[in-house]
Structure formats: C-alpha cells, structure tokens
Design brief:
With 362 residues, the chain is α/β, with parallel strands linked by helices. Helix content is 41%, strand content 17%. The chain has two domains: 190 residues, 3-Layer(aba) Sandwich (Rossmann fold); 156 residues, Glycogen Phosphorylase B (Rossmann fold, 3-Layer(aba) Sandwich), CATH 3.40.50. The chain has 13 helices and 13 strands. The radius of gyration is 20 Å and the shape is globular.
C-alpha cells in the first residue's frame, strides 16, 4: 500500500521527540512492502539540524511552511495514497491539515496518528470548540503511540470510530550498546527537551536529586535547558542527536526517564526513550506510572521511583554490577517483545483484519 504520512519530521530529531518513532515504524512498514512518502514542513530549523539524510525506504517531501505549501502537499498525497496519515504535532497548520485530511477527495483510508494522545485529549476536554471534536469521527481510525485503555476510551467517547495504541519500541539498527563517552560520563543522565508540562517533574525527579547529592555527577541532554538554573554538579550538554544516543545511554551508571505530566496521569504511555535506553544497554530509573509492568518488570528490569527522594535512594544503592544486571534483563525483554518490527506486524495485522471485515460486510 502507498502510505502518505504528514508528521513533524522524519530526518531531524531537533525539538522533535517523535522522530525515532516515525523512523522505526515506517522503516519496518517499508520492509513489509509498503511504499512510504513522508511530508514535513521546512520549519523550526529542523532541516538545518538533520540527523539523517533522506532514507532509502521513504520518499521525504519537505514543503514550504506556508498555506500554499501544505495544501499542495496534501493534494499530491491525496491523489496517490491508499492510506493518508495526519500525525499530531506537525507544528504548523495542524488544525488546517486535520480538517482538510478528511475533506479532500481521495480513495485513501484516513488515519489520525496521535503521538501525544494525553496532551491532545486534555486539550479537547478543556476546549469545547476544539476542532478535533468536529472531525475526529470522520477519520477511519485513530492510532496512538501510547495510552492504553484510558486513551482508547477517551477517544471513543470523543467520537472516534476506533482507537488502537501502537506503542513506542526499539529500532535495533539505531539503538544498541556502544562504548562510553567522557562527554556524557555521570552517575545519572536524563535526555529530554525542556517542555512546560514536563519541566516541573524534571525539577523534582532530577534537579532536586542533584542538589541533595552534591558528590554525584549528573548530565542533562536536550534542547532548551541553557537558561535553566541548575546545580553545579549538573552538566547541560544541549541537543543530543540520535547518532550520540547510544553513547549517552551507555556512559552513566543509570539513565532517568521522566514522563510528561499528562502521560504519567493517563498511564500506559512509555516514551520512546524507555525502549531506546534499554536497547542501548542502560540501567533505567523511571518515574512511576500505571502500566510500566506491561513493558518492564519493576525491581528486576527497571527501577521505579514515585518521587525524587526515591530516585536518590535507588542511585545511592546502585552498584555497577547491579546496574549491568538490570540493564541486561531490560534489553532482553525489549528485544523479545518491543521492537518496531513487531509493531509493524501489528499494523499489518490490524489492516488485514479490517479488510476482511469490509469484504464480509459487502
């Protein structure tokens, strides 16, 4: 099938945490025989901060960040697509694209693919006139990269015909154990862009921990932290491109995951970083959220902390041998159950079942 996908960016992870999800999913869908075209705007300096060249498994169409730019791209996609996907969080003209994707004449199946469903659903609940309230029922299907039953139920209540989570996962060709780098050496590392609904939780789970443990070393990677007041034992290393992820995850005693507030509240929303860090051989400490045990076993494959004090306790008790053991178990679990190859097969099975139901109804 020809899949035309509108997303934030496939070629750049700059201010774009969904990049590795797109890459992992679409590369494996291409390996299953699908023809992929990815449409992204030339915006937010992402083209100046590319992590990868145009991949051989997808045609990348970079369109001007203008009304004419997105309209022409959508018209082109609608003419050829078997499946037309509008992902959340493109960053420019999202409302216009989400409305137009279900209105434009096309034989394509229309999918809304939400890469931050908790935030989207919160916005819909807080805004009675939110545009998705009017159009979500016109999409054939909603896919999300997390959220579990609470997100599925919320989307169906909002009018979605159906909603299916296709979770984040590991791309084994890009995230794997690698030698440590002095640039990222630390006791605890965190890779996360500075975002409003995560900053307070990072203050509590990471920066306050650093303040209470002045003899330990901490590394904070991601965009936006330059102006943040941080303790002396925290090194802010700025944007970390995907080519440096493995070194980042492999250079610390442990790596911390901190969910955005809405993701933690809905649960069953493991960020891409959970799978990438485990795949790269990191010992992972995560904030507590419902559903973590569906992906990794607490205490055995991951350390779970309900507060900054709990993070400090884990770090204080952790030895290098313990960290290696936990990391090894986590990586084995992820490789066995949570790779993008498995997610792509889930996608294929989902659409094969839908095609069978349609044929039976006819």
């Amino acid at each position: 099938m020809k899949i035309c996908f509108f997303g934030s960016s496939l070629v750049s992870s700059y201010w774009n945490g969904a990049a590795t999800y797109y890459r992992g999913m679409l590369k494996e869908l291409a390996a299953l025989g699908h023809d992929i075209a990815f449409f992204e705007p030339d915006a937010f300096q992402r083209q100046q901060h590319r992590d990868i060249a145009d991949p051989p498994w997808a045609k990348v169409v970079v369109y001007p960040p203008t009304s004419d730019g997105w309209q022409r791209s959508l018209e082109t996609a609608a003419q050829s697509a078997d499946i037309l996907v509008k992902a959340s969080g493109v960053g420019l003209f999202d409302e216009e694209l989400e409305n137009a994707a279900v209105e434009i004449p096309s034989r394509a199946l229309r999918i809304y693919w939400d890469v931050d469903a908790p935030a989207t659903l919160d916005a819909m609940s807080q805004q009675p006139r939110h545009h998705l309230r009017r159009v979500i029922s016109r999409y054939d299907l909603v896919l999300t990269y997390g959220g579990g039953d609470p997100v599925v139920a919320a989307y169906r209540s909002a009018g979605a015909r159906d909603c299916v989570p296709i979770y984040n996962a590991l791309d084994t060709s890009t995230h794997f154990p690698a030698p440590a780098s002095p640039r990222f050496a630390c006791d605890l590392g965190l890779l996360a862009n500075r975002l409003p609904d995560r900053e307070q939780r990072i203050d509590s789970f990471f920066l306050e921990v650093a303040r209470t443990m002045p003899s330990r070393q901490f590394v904070l990677g991601g965009s936006g932290w330059d102006s943040k007041d941080t303790p002396a034992n925290v090194r802010c290393v700025g944007h970390v491109g995907t080519g440096d992820h493995n070194a980042f995850f492999g250079s610390g005693l442990a790596t911390l995951n901190v969910n955005r507030e809405s993701m933690a509240r809905y649960g069953f929303s493991p960020p891409t970083r959970v799978f990438e860090a485990a795949g790269a051989g990191a010992c992972l400490i995560t904030d507590d959220w419902e559903g973590i045990d569906a992906f990794l076993e607490p205490g055995r494959e991951v350390l779970v902390a309900s507060s900054g004090a709990a993070v400090a306790e884990h770090l204080d008790a952790l030895t290098h041998e313990m960290a290696r053991t936990i990391a090894s178990r986590a990586r084995a679990r992820i490789l066995a159950h949570h790779t993008y190859r498995q997610r792509a097969r889930q996608f294929n099975t989902l659409f094969a079942e839908r095609a069978t139901r349609i044929e039976a109804a006819e």
